[in-house]
User: Which sequence fits this backbone?
């Protein structure tokens, strides 16, 4: 007992010593890098050389990943959605934009940054949150298509009931409505609002 | 008291004392720049105070540390928590983001507040002053909404 009392009083008296004021921004940045890296390592994907080679290939990957995400959400499959989100986040760095002029590159870079952010969140969230990010990224994804074009016809579809009646949009490769924002709860809510075609 | 009890307590004591001397990062980076959310948008004082009290401990470069942050291992845990919060959203650097990213972050902020996901319940347990009652919540939501509209314009 004596030892216990002694140890408690001693550690209390030492509390003040633990206080060290270090304002080291670099260190905290390093920590971020580290967490990002280990995160990527968890989901190692066969990305890399072949992806950055061909611009069209990368855009195809991005559209494939977006549509895989859409399909996963239609099927209420949170795990598949997480995988697709992760792949999409990784594919954003594979897009070669060097052929565009500088202002356009800047716009595309900002879009890719945001898509990456959405993809990363989808990779680690539960399904309601995944849907929120998926809906949020659709506008950005359309902006990207407007900049770099599409390799297939896509349909913008809209369901007015999503988000407490504020509505929500998504892209689909077919005209048939399969709602990714509600999944099995309301699979057919929605209509085609816009067609995005190859130029 | 058995002998091994005494040995175990002794070891625990030495470890507890020892870790008090391990230096811990402090998230108190000066100066506050124009990229700081409240500075950047010249937020009204009332709004700025709510944001500071409810968000800034984990989402800015200026944490207001409680006294127990000086006791280890609590301080380490807090530091982890803070760097995680800042990697999601650092309001001290909000002004540096692209408009597109600002919109994205603001939408997430709005959704988190609206769904009572933030501030986190575990944080509110020890920081009752950070709690967003319905008035504060309404104020913040309409304020962040107005900023979102401004960016879109």
Assistant:
């Amino acid at each position: 007992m004596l030892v216990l009392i002694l140890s408690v009083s001693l550690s209390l008296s030492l509390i003040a010593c633990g206080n060290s004021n270090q304002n080291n921004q670099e260190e905290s940045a390093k920590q971020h890098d580290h967490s990002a890296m280990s995160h990527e390592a968890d989901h190692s994907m066969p990305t890399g050389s072949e992806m950055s080679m061909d611009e069209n290939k990368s855009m195809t990957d991005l559209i494939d990943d977006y549509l895989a995400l859409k399909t996963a959400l239609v099927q209420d499959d949170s795990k598949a959605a997480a995988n697709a989100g992760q792949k999409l986040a990784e594919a954003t760095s594979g897009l070669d934009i060097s052929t565009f002029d500088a202002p356009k590159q800047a716009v595309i870079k900002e879009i890719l940054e945001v898509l990456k952010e959405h993809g990363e969140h989808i990779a680690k969230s539960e399904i309601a949150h995944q849907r929120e990010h998926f809906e949020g990224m659709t506008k950005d994804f359309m902006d990207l298509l407007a900049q770099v074009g599409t390799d297939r016809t896509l349909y913008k579809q809209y369901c007015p009931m999503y988000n407490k009646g504020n509505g929500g949009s998504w892209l689909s490769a077919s005209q048939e409505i399969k709602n990714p924002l509600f999944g099995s709860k309301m699979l057919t809510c929605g209509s085609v609002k816009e067609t995005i075609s190859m130029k | 008291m058995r002998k091994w009890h005494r040995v175990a307590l002794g070891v625990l004591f030495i470890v507890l004392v020892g870790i008090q001397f391990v230096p811990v990062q402090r998230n108190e980076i000066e100066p506050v720049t124009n990229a700081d959310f409240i500075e950047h948008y010249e937020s009204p004082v009332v709004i700025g105070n709510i944001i500071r009290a409810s968000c800034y401990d984990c989402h800015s470069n200026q944490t207001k540390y409680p006294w127990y942050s000086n006791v280890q291992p609590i301080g380490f845990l807090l530091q982890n928590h803070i760097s995680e919060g800042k990697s999601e959203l650092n309001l001290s650097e909000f002004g540096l983001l692209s408009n597109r990213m600002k919109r994205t972050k603001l939408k997430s902020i709005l959704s988190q507040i609206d769904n009572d996901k933030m501030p986190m319940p575990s944080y509110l347990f020890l920081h009752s002053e950070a709690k967003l009652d319905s008035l504060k919540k309404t104020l913040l939501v309409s304020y962040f909404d107005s900023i979102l509209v401004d960016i879109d314009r």
